[in-house]
Design a protein that fits this description.
- It contains two helices and eight strands, in the order H-E-E-E-E-E-E-E-E-H.
- With about 190 residues, the protein is an alpha+beta fold.
- A four-stranded antiparallel beta sheet has the order 1-8-3-6, with no helix packed on it. Strands 2-7-4-5 form a four-stranded antiparallel beta sheet, with no helix packed on it.
- Strand 4 and strand 5 form a beta hairpin.
């Protein structure tokens, strides 16, 4: 196999590995965090580049500021549908929940008692559903560029081969003076 084919196979692998890495990146939305203004109701968005199903992950931690045990709860609603609901205490540590839902706006409702700090993050993967389509597009694009490069090289080589290698110019000898100029007169 020619070396250029191996290079294009490596390029195909690199391009698709890059697309895989990009498509697996998550987008994080902070709902509540210590040090920021607490809100018991926050709007967030589930969105995807391709498709209507969105994979999401919600992580929440409730910590007591004075060592006591307090109640806390969180609910995630999309329209009139409840996507996730949790009730517990500050002793339960961090909880992570993953699922899928339809694209759209959601509302995260958090109830905490006085003396509790809430940390809630929502992570989505908006390009994950587009991985297969991107894989096809980038693979086809790489193959088109590879064979396009070979095609362009063949055209350039053909043009170079068609041009004459040396150009000859014939010059005519000047025999008759024209105009006011003439050969100098010499004495005999």
């Amino acid at each position: 196999m020619k070396n250029s084919y191996w290079l294009w196979i490596i390029a195909l692998i690199v391009v698709n590995a890059g697309w895989y890495t990009v498509s697996q990146q998550g987008a994080t939305q902070e709902i509540n965090r210590p040090g920021a203004d607490f809100s018991d109701s926050r709007d967030a968005e589930l969105s995807s580049l391709v498709g209507s199903e969105v994979e999401y992950e919600i992580e929440h931690c409730f910590d007591s500021t004075n060592g006591g045990v307090y109640n806390a709860s969180i609910t995630v609603n999309q329209g009139s549908k409840t996507l996730y609901s949790w009730n517990g205490t500050t002793d339960e540590g961090c909880v992570m929940y993953s699922s899928t839902a339809e694209e759209g706006d959601i509302v995260v409702i958090t109830y905490i008692e006085e003396g509790v700090e809430a940390t809630t993050t929502l992570t989505t993967w908006p390009l994950k559903n587009a991985f297969t389509i991107g894989l096809i597009i980038f693979s086809i694009g790489t193959v088109v560029i590879a064979f396009g490069e070979t095609f362009v090289r063949a055209i350039i080589k053909k043009k170079i081969d068609q041009e004459p290698s040396e150009t000859t110019v014939q010059t005519s000898s000047f025999t008759e003076p024209s105009g006011i100029w003439q050969d100098p007169l010499r004495p005999n």
